[in-house]
Amino acid sequence: MPSDAIKIVWIYPDLLSTYGDRGNCIVLERRAKLRGIATRTVNVRSDEPVPVDGDIYLLGGGEDRPQILAAQRLHGDGGLHKAVGFGASVFAVCAGYQLLGHEFGGEEGQPVQGLGLLNIRSGRGENRAVGELAGEVDPALGVPMITGFENHQGVTFLGEGVKPLARVAVGVGNGDGYEGAYSGKVMGTYMHGPALVRNPALADLLLGWAVGRRLEPVDDTWSGRLREERLRAVLPG
Ligand code: GLN
What contacts 59, CB < 8 A, 6 or more positions away? Predict the structure, then answer.
């Protein structure tokens, strides 16, 4: 394996892995391979140290209690903080997204301390958001409309220096008309799907951040068909 292979780190499959979010790893590996870029994926269970030399860190969704445990262990470990300090990218989904912030709501709505890697705060909303999610992405990212599904109780508030990933067209997202957030190379979203399966342009953005240049498009008929089918199902006209 060449040493310049992109190192993908899948954080805590034993705690954060709902709705097949590990598919995000598979998409990154495949889209890198289509371009002749080597990758190496490391699965890090919650009783193992988080390597600090990864290029892309992925976190999935989770139930309330595993989410709290994951936040505590990641805090204690410190590896993810170091990696972000070294310039790594993070793509986090739902529970993983919330725990990147300063605070999120626990199973009784109690505030739980997050990692503070994104300047966001989450709490528990009045209603559970369940269903399809679609939105217009921040034009600065050069990514077409996003599609996914959401299943969460949390609502998320963005602080200074953090931009929403998208304006919601269908669904709930953060709860204020926007969905997800990013700052630098740290990005979170409420989208399952898995998110990168339905939105390969987001996968390419992450790979581009890792290699330090924007990647050329690749032909990927199946993901295009999936996107069309999902977007057609929820968007008017
Ligand atoms: N437990 C969190 C919530 O309900 C995240 C759920 C998830 O990851 N799907 O908001």
Answer: 11, 12, 16, 70, 90, 91, 92, 93, 95, 96, 97, 99, 100
- Told to judge if 192 belongs to the known catalytic residues of this protein, a careful annotator would answer yes
**Catalytic residue check, 25:** no
Whether the model clears a pTM of 0.85, i.e. scores above it, the answer is: yes
Rg (alpha carbons) of the chain, rounded to whole number: 16
Q: What SS3 class is residue 102?
A: coil
Q: Find the CATH number of the domain harbouring 182.
A: 3.40.50.880
Q: The dihedral of CA 160, 189, 49, 6: what is its sign?
A: negative
Phi-psi region for residue 157, left (φ > 0), alpha (ψ -120 to 50) or beta?
Answer: beta
Given a cut of 60, whether residue 174 has pLDDT beyond it is: yes
CB-based contacts of 72, cutoff 8 Å, min separation 6: none
Question: What's the gap in Å between 61 CA and the centre of ligand 1?
Answer: 6
Nearest protein Cα to ligand 1, atom 5 = 95
Number of domains in the chain: 1
Average pLDDT rounded to a whole number, residues 94-109: 97
Is 1 a member of any domain? no
Place of tokens 């999610």: 133
Domain coverage including residue 67: 6-234
Please work out whether the CB of residue 95 comes within 6 Å of at least one atom of ligand 1.
yes
